[in-house]
Design goal:
The chain is α+β, with helices and mostly antiparallel strands. Helix content is about 30%, strand content about 25%. The strands form five sheets. Strands 5, 6, 7, 8, 9, 10, 11, 14, 15 and 18 form a ten-stranded antiparallel beta sheet that branches. Strands 1-2-3-19 form a four-stranded mixed beta sheet, with no helix packed on it. The chain has a three-stranded mixed beta sheet with strand order 4-12-13, with no helix packed on it. Helix 5 crosses helix 9 and helix 5 crosses helix 10. The protein binds manganese (II) ion.
Length: about 400
Amino acid sequence: MFRCPNQVVSSVLACVRRISPVYTFRSWLQHLADTRRLATVDKPVDLRFELAAVAKYLDGKQPVLFKRVQGHEVPVVSGIAGSRSLLAEALGCSVAWIVEHFAAACAHPLPSQRVSAEQAPVQERVITSPVDLMKTLPIPVHHEHDAGPYITAGLFIVRNPVTGQQNVAIHRLQVTGPNRLGVLLLPRHTQHLWRQAEAAGRPLECAIVIGVDPATLLASQANVPLGVDELAVAGALRNEPLRVVRGVTVDVDVPADAEIVLEGRILPQVREPEGPFGEFPKYYGPRSEKEVVEVTAITSRTQPFFHTILPAGWEHLLLGAIPREASLLAAVRQTVPTVTAVHLTPGGTCRFHAAIAMRKQHEGQAKNAILAAFANNFDLKHVVVVDDDVDIFQAEEVE
Ligand code: MN
């Protein structure tokens, strides 16, 4: 694993009360700052469009820290995982090895370790009633036609009431009231667990975690079966169990070293308008009636950072791409073991087009790799298979 140089660790220890043994959001930030790769904006920025515009300008080039956000004490950070090389560094592997490393972590998850509230920096500060999201947190409006401020980097955690297993995903969250969020639940695991709760007439408790290390952020997007806790994938990626703490008002375990947690519940039989929202393919997702989260508590570090992911930016695209590539690699290898690499290309917004490299040994293997790819991933529309001497990260070489 990659570790901070000793002087970085000691400088972080000097300014932070408690620290995870590996990376936290703020130790990663500190590492970026110490190696002169963190852009800082000292001028006050407006949460409405201006912050997103600067983040867009730096997208894929540099992570950015906005020290002064108008009307707020809490600084905002964007782009902490905005390139494959940053993610590789945070995972302690080479760029070429990220997908293999992620696939291995999905196959061998490492369960989290629960700690007490006293050992959890994310519960240094607790706000219960009244909760006022916009007063407490600097939540940006990213794009011109967005319906309002959106939380884009929140790990949405729910617990399966039957099995006790947790599930983690990122869902777009529109702030619609002081303690109210509209949430887009696509037909995946959160929605499955939510439908069971709603059918029984019950709310579903949830926690929304903002400000985690890049490995945990990436793990939240793991394409693992229902019942596999994505935080355990984070543990495997970090080669060490993630420290978690039980929520203050909900029975949900959250990363103890995170910056901010919103606790709440999805309300049964309630739907309210959510959207439009500028989405990953650089088109707007439409407005419609969506589920509603009522926030019951905000917990945080004493002086937290707020993380926002610029929609359709590199951080957004890569957090989606790498876990999908890992799942794709595992799937096509079951059919053709000599597949050497897969890539979801930027031209397909890192979702729709795949390039696959393989050492072909028999006729028909390329065709089978293509069919296996389509069977694995319902977003895929276009697959190209090439020999393993082609660098599939270079569009010119593939073509
Ligand atoms: Mn899941």
